[in-house]
Amino acid sequence: MANKHQDAKRVDEPTGTEFVGHEWDGIEELDTPMPRWWLWSYYACIVWGIVYVILYPAWPLVEKGTEGVLGWTSRGQLAEAVEAAQLERAPVLAALSEIPTEQLTEYPERMRQAISGGEAAFKVNCVQCHGAGAAGSIGYPNLNDDDWLWGGDLKAIEVTLQHGIRWDGSDQTRISQMPAFGRDGILTREQITEVTSHILTFSGAEDVSPASLRGAELFEANCAVCHASNGTGLREFGAPNLADKIWLYGDKRSQIEGQIWAPQNGVMPGWQERLDPVTIKMLAAYVHSRGGGEAAPVAVSEPAPAEGASE
Amino acid sequence: MSDAPAIDWTNPSKKPAPDPGPDPEPGPLYAVRKAVHPQRIDGPFRRFKWLVMLITLGIYYITPWIRWDRGPFAPDQAVLVDLANRRFYMFGVEIWPHEFYFVAGMLIMAGIGLFLVTSAVGRAWCGYSCPQTVWTDVFQHVDRFVDGDRNARMRLDAAPWGPAKIARRGFKWTIYLVISFWTGGAWIMYFADAPTLTVDFWTGQAAMVAYVTVAILTATTFILGGFLREQVCIYMCPWPRIQTAMLDEKSLIVTYKDWRGEQRGSVKKAAKNPERYGDCIDCNQCVAVCPTGVDIREGAQIGCITCGLCIDACDRVMAEVGRPRGLIDYATLEDCEHEAAGGNVRSIWKTLFRPRTLIYFSIWGAIGAALLFALGVRTHTELTVEHDRNPPFMLMSNGDVRNAFTVRIRNMESRPRDMKLEIGGLPDGLMWTDDTARADAARSIIRAVPADATQPVRVYVIAPSDTVTQNFTFTVTSQDEQSEQDAAEVRFESPEN
Questions:
Q1: How many other CB atoms are found less than 10 A from the CB of residue B296?
Q2: Does residue A26 register a pLDDT over 90?
Q3: Model ipTM?
Q4: Residue A306 belongs to domain spanning
Q5: Which residues of B touch A292 (CB under 8 A)?
């Protein structure tokens, strides 16, 4: 490096090119000129850069950047893409809105589209309570199973979605109120224990015992009107089936006793005012498809008189 | 700019005059390309080059138009890269995206094939079959057709611009453009049904990407083949540089046998003083015919693509002056030293068949055989199963345990087939799907899978409450005479362990 000035005049014999004067381990750098087209490519890049700065947002300034004469923005591009996607979906949504919910299963292709649309809407609106896999948790129903509080056919699910459960935003909401048997002094603590023993015999979790036999009488007097004598529940009141293996508020004795003492009455909001009818229909299809969906009751597919009967 | 001394990078023998001044001007910032005007030549290597050009261009232009009947459910184009549907068709073979290892294997074979060719016959790829070489050759023939041979072209180059020169240049560049357009136009035929695309293209109905691709390839062909030519080999292409590392003293390269040629001198001089002069009569024919403009007598260099045209030229001259051929010839460095020391010319076979080429060939052949084997034994029925991760299992109201799976049944035949999905293991397990009822749950189900398609099915598998977590298998069997099978082992999750 030190003798750069002298080296600069030295010429490489085979090529006739001057040395730059840089040398590493005997490898020397030649002052080889680049080909002219290479220079042109640099000029082309400069021109491209100038054109880009004029056309597109480029220079950051104090308040905001330069905007570019094309007026392009990434937000605008997103809006266009969203609009294009909506335009593409429009015919499917229109077709779905034509089909009565309870007849959706007769159109397999539309049903598939509804399920995938519903899946997307579920992830935005429903997973907060029901979980990403719709498996719920204590107090929040599992939508994958075959146990339905208010009905598991497409129409029933749609009504639940529209008006919610114990939701004061809709006067058609599904409503029922289980009394607080313990807190309000209807039953004593021992009586609740006995009723629980009886309840647990329905599903075979416990055997019949003297306590459960005493509980049976109390059950008949206080509970059977909603939950039925054999504990199978009543969907009109959203009264859970106590004879199966699914317990919304937990299957432990203490959890069941607690629920009788002072029940939690779960609330689900109605979505009628927040989501459009087609989205609710697609959500119903998705929930129905999770493996526990039920066939529509025969009455629904029959003409007018039956319509009133199902209300 | 114009008075800067031009350095001829393709011909290093012409050195600019050394600057005598005490305070030299700074050197040029860029080097102007010296145009290469190769002279017409005929000979065995030129004819071989014609043959290779015919074959490579023939393959390139004709392949997409070959038809291949695959039945009503698949395209009838022999070679088709169907990007939209993610299929690659090549005659009797259809490759799906998950079989991309076939393409990867072919690319590896192409790479090792280049090593093999380089170690055996030097830069034969560069000299004959590289697209840059082939298209440069085509464009140089256009030059010759429009402007005449070497001397006429050099005169025209030096002539001032006038109506005649503008007309000639315009005509020539139009031909360049037509060829370039044809190059780009043929490329897109590999990606769609060629006859349909041709009609769509000319009626303005083809996809925008087709027009853009043709425009880009037309531009690159026009620039790279029409103007940049040998500069691509010298400045842009990595392959010549890789090859400098791959060539050894046993590689065939085009060699000027200097011990025989030097001292250069005309026939007259040599006749007067035969002791002093060698065989080279310094006629410069080898330089005149070179498509990259190098002087092979300078020795091996990056600009030499070893096309052998200088061998043709030199052999012809040697025949005229009555001296033996092969002053310039394909030879290995080792053989040259052997000959220079007075040894006999060695057989080319020893160069072709030596351990290095044989090792490359066996690697290349082994990969090829493995690919062929894989192709031979692959079935056209496949199964993939994905277990629902959330929830991993479900309790039903009667206490049964249910697991949900997304099963994908792949029918890779170009006809619809019925596929039987069965549960293996899990003794009391039953399954149903999201479009059948639980009441129909069974050990096996049959699905109609469309031609050349993957069918996703959501499958619910249910087992009694006392079932413990265990592995079981899904098996799919095609319901035709092939009875192809595939299986996937999955886990049945249960609260009981």
A1: 23
A2: no
A3: 0.78
A4: 96-171+276-311
A5: 396
